[in-house]
Amino acid sequence: MDNREIILTVDDIHKKYGNTEVLRGISFEVRKGDTKVFIGSSGTGKSTLLRCINQLTIPDSGKIWLHDEEVTHSQKSINYFRQKIGMVFQNFNLFDHLSAVRNVEIALIKVRKMPKKEAREKAMEELRRVGLEPQANLYPAELSGGQAQRVSIARALAMEPDIMLFDEPTSALDPELTGEVLAVMKDLSKNGMTMLVVTHEMGFACSVANEIIFMEQGKILESGPPEQLVRNPRYDRTKQFLFKLGELYGDIGRSQ
Amino acid sequence: MDLVFITDVVLPPLMAGLVVTLKLIACSVPFGLIAGILIATGRVYGNPLVSFACSAYVVIFKGTPLLMLLFLIYFGLPSVGITLEPFTAAVIGFIVCNGAYNSEYIRGAIQSVKSGQMVAALALGMTRREAILNVVLPQALRRAIPGISNEIIYLIKYSSLAYMLTCIELTGAGKIVASRYFRFTLVFLIVGIIYLILITIAGKILSLIEKKLEVPGLIR
Q: How far is A147 from chain B (nearest CA, A)?
């Protein structure tokens, strides 16, 4: 039996926009050190799900627990949970008016109330971790997409989160830049970071994830370890989707 | 001799007036800016009531002449028991008016900040207030600088309206000297040149500030 600590519990999350049911009862558990990859066609609620986890989107019903504390309905203390749940966005969302190192340290100073000197040291350390120490004083507009995304990963890591959410972190990048971001993420995963990743990078999913979750129309259709889900999908719909991905990106699961 | 007349008779009272003009501007600009920031932030992020109040403020003070406002403050307020010095009344009027115009530039700039900036700030655990203060406003204000600079230059010019409240600033001082010696053309040409110099210097300072605060790629 798996006796690693449960970090995150997602229990029966529903979300509707108008008449469209985006999430129709999603439940799963995340244990310490897990890397779970979410796949599925656009509009199946993968991004909405991630945003529900840190309450950037408020679900209509269902509960989220971080360790044994409820994140949903946490009112003011949501800001505490958000520090513990790092998030990386498709469009990086770096603060445009701050240099790379200021981007990483600002939440340490303003949210964690860390002394400036200490925050700067911590920020530099995080930038070093993603290989961007020389770019510390560049502004977002002066960074390549891959560098910007790595800064945004460093920014999230600086808060020492218990879990990291990646919302299509490489979808806005060309293949070369994608590689450098995925390398950082692989490294993180290997070092034991707990991660939920929405991505269609199946090479990454197969080599790093311990579970791939296939979502379809707001539900988890099936999930399992990469070798099982990719080689032996239970449903035709999963098979069809993986086939489409394979057509686009080459043979999945062998391309690592 | 005209030159002696200028240096000995015209310039001393004009310089005294200029000092008052500078004081009017120095007292109005910072508070006009603060008023603009508060009103713009209230309009965009306030609850419906605050937002409505801020919009109403802008509609009222953008839609009425400044001189009327000054008269109301100076001549109207005593009827409800508030009597103000001419200088104070003028400064209050300028702040109210300048704040309304500034808020329009700042509101536009706030709305031009990409929504992802706020989302990223919240995701890091900032409260909305912290996100507005640390992320949205620093970007919005940088984008609003050209507009705010314009308003400051207008303010320098409409500070001459203080004269209508018997606050003798540059224009008022000019009017007094000109009437006494009946030298309107000469005196008001000099007054005009002083304003021109003042505004040129202000423009230079403002563009230096804009340069100093410039961030690569922030304003496209």
A: 16
Sign of the CA dihedral running B82, B83, B87, B89: positive
Residue A239 forms beta bridges with which residues?
none
Nearest to B133 by CA among B115, B145, B143, B121: B121
State the distance between the two ends of chain B, measured CA to CA, in whole angstroms.
Answer: 56
B29/B140 Cα distance (integer angstroms): 18
Q: Find tokens 């040409």 and name the residue.
A: B189
* Measured CA distances, A35 to A164, A196, B101 (Å): 9, 6, 52
Distance CA B143, CA B149 (A): 11
Q: CA A220 to CA A45: how far, in whole Å?
A: 10
What's the rounded Cα separation, in Å, for the pair A196 and B169?
66
Q: Residue B220's pLDDT is what?
A: 57
Residue B135: list chain A partners with CB under 8 A: 95, 97, 106
pLDDT (mean) for A195-217? 94
DSSP state of B134: I
Contact yes or no for A170/A178 (Cβ under 8 A): yes
A97 and chain B in contact, CB less than 8 A: yes
Q: For A5-70, give the secondary structure using H, E and C.
A: CEEEEEEEEEEEECCEEEEEEEEEEEECCCEEEEECCCCCCHHHHHHHHCCCCCCCEEEEEECCEE
CB contact under 8 A, A107 and B126: yes
pLDDT tens string A105-140: 999 999 999 999 999 999 999 999 999 999 999 999
Q: Which two tokens stand for residue A214?
A: 């296939």
Q: Which residues pair with A88 in a beta bridge?
A: A166
What is the Cβ-side half-sphere exposure of residue A85, based on CA atoms within 13 angstroms? 31
- The answer to whether A16 and A58 have CB atoms below 8 angstroms apart is no
Cα–Cα distances in angstroms (integers) from residue B39 to residues A3, B32, B49, B59, B99, in the given order: 55, 10, 13, 12, 8
Q: Under an 8 A CB cutoff, do B124 and A54 touch? A: no
Q: Can you give the pLDDT at residue A247? A: 82
A85-88 and A61-66 beta bridge pairing: unpaired
